[in-house]
From TrEMBL:
This is Coenzyme A biosynthesis bifunctional protein CoaBC. It holds the Pfam family Flavoprotein. Residues 12-160 form the Flavoprotein domain. The keyword Flavoprotein applies. Pathway: Cofactor biosynthesis; coenzyme A biosynthesis; CoA from (R)-pantothenate: step 2/5; Cofactor biosynthesis; coenzyme A biosynthesis; CoA from (R)-pantothenate: step 3/5.
Length: 406
């Protein structure tokens, strides 16, 4: 009689909730986690219950909810919860909660749990811009990141009242993606913690007239996967997005551009202080020589005037030329034939540290959820990445980058 395999244990997530108005968004994050097969225990602060009450958290999680270390003392919850967790995710992380965590204070169940957890710990801050930018908050964030915690950069947008700025809690779907990726990497260190990386994504569009442009098929999926996985590994990420219709990765600073010249300016500006730059965007090699202010009309019996093209700047070469000591520069090569030969020639011509070479086509790579590639190195080494998710390829790319940053 064959043995029946034991059911695999569901990932155990501790969801810490701080006392901020953004706590209402965390209800949706909790729902996403439980519906995707995670066991979730909510640990709110006392002030968090002023915004969302205990019955709501208990009903959504199916677990008891308490803020105190004195509840269920026989089970030693302030120790056992952290010891048994696969992930601790704190959202919203208020300025006060970040300060208490950074200084090791333990005056409630959540801060006690943070001291006992030996799994990945993620903070998703939310507060007014002035509070986020205050030197005390920034010092506390730096301290937490130096200990291997992931502190997601807050989003820019509408805050409470009439205020807008940086400090908004990212949307629940983006927070869920971050939690999922970090859980998948829980056995690996936050090897990009304290690093600033720049990723370009999408495809540029070169305008011909107010309604037409020269473009390409790039969807931005690979660049966004690179941004998400870098965030999961602790990096501060600037994402330069060209014509991408995808939700912003939680914690990334997103700079939206349209043309190759706009992308060039944004990437070179962001790269000035970056530890690594990955050019995953499909940048147009050419643009029309001149822009028509009005729509070009079709005239019966007449052929259209030819569109003369001029070269766009080579952004990757400019990055390599301007890079600062220790900076890692990675290029992408989308090839339709002689993939490896063309890739090696491009690597030698561009002078970057790594070149990710993949075969592309109408139904291959562009817009697809998976990818396969060869990562070529300037020292002659190569890494084959078999077809899999674009996040899997992104992780291998960051493995190569992280090794060079060390």
């Amino acid at each position: 009689m064959s043995e029946v395999p034991a059911p695999s244990r569901r990932p155990r997530v501790l969801l810490g909730v701080g006392g901020g108005i953004a706590a209402y968004k965390v209800c949706e994050l909790l729902r996403r986690l439980t519906e995707s097969g995670h066991d979730v225990r909510v640990i709110p602060t006392r002030d968090a219950l002023r915004f969302v009450g205990e019955p709501t958290w208990a009903a959504l999680s199916g677990e008891p909810v308490t803020t105190e270390v004195w509840s269920g003392v026989a089970e030693v919850p302030h120790v056992r919860l952290g010891q048994g967790a696969d992930l601790v995710f704190v959202a919203p992380a208020t300025a006060d909660l970040l300060a208490r965590a950074a200084h090791g204070l333990a005056d409630d169940l959540l801060t006690n749990t943070l001291l006992t957890a030996r799994c990945p710990v993620v903070f998703a801050p939310a507060m007014h811009t002035e509070m986020w930018e205050h030197p005390a908050t920034q010092a506390n964030v730096a301290t937490l990141r130096s200990r291997g915690c992931v502190v997601i950069e807050p989003a820019v947008g509408r805050l409470t009242g009439a205020d807008s700025g940086k400090g908004r809690l990212p949307d629940p779907d983006a927070l869920f993606d971050a939690a999922r990726l970090i859980l998948a990497r829980k056995d690996l260190p936050a090897d990009l913690a304290g690093r600033h990386v720049v990723v370009s994504a999408g495809g540029t569009r070169e305008p011909i007239d107010p309604v037409r442009f020269i473009g390409n098929r790039s969807s931005g999926l690979q660049g966004y996967a690179l941004a998400r996985t870098a965030l999961a590994r602790g990096a501060r990420v600037t994402l330069v997005a060209a014509n991408v219709a995808l939700p912003d990765p939680a914690g990334a600073e997103v700079v939206r551009v349209g043309s190759a010249l706009e992308l060039r300016d944004a990437v070179l500006k962001a790269a000035g202080e970056a530890d690594a730059v990955i050019m995953a965007a499909a940048v147009a090699d050419f643009r029309p020589d001149g822009y028509r202010d009005v729509k070009i009309k079709k005239t019966d019996g007449a052929e259209p005037e030819p569109i003369r093209l001029v070269k766009n700047p080579d952004v990757l070469v400019e990055l390599v030329t301007a890079r600062r000591p220790g900076q890692v520069v990675v290029g992408f090569a989308a090839e339709t034939n002689d993939v490896l030969r063309n890739g090696r020639e491009k690597l030698a011509r561009k002078g970057c540290d790594l070149l990710v070479v993949n075969e592309v086509g109408e139904r291959l790579t562009f817009g697809a959820p998976d990818n396969a590639a060869v990562i070529l190195s300037a020292d002659g080494a190569s890494v084959d990445v078999p077809r899999g998710s674009k996040e899997a390829l992104a992780d291998v790319v960051w493995d190569q980058v992280a090794g060079r940053l060390k």
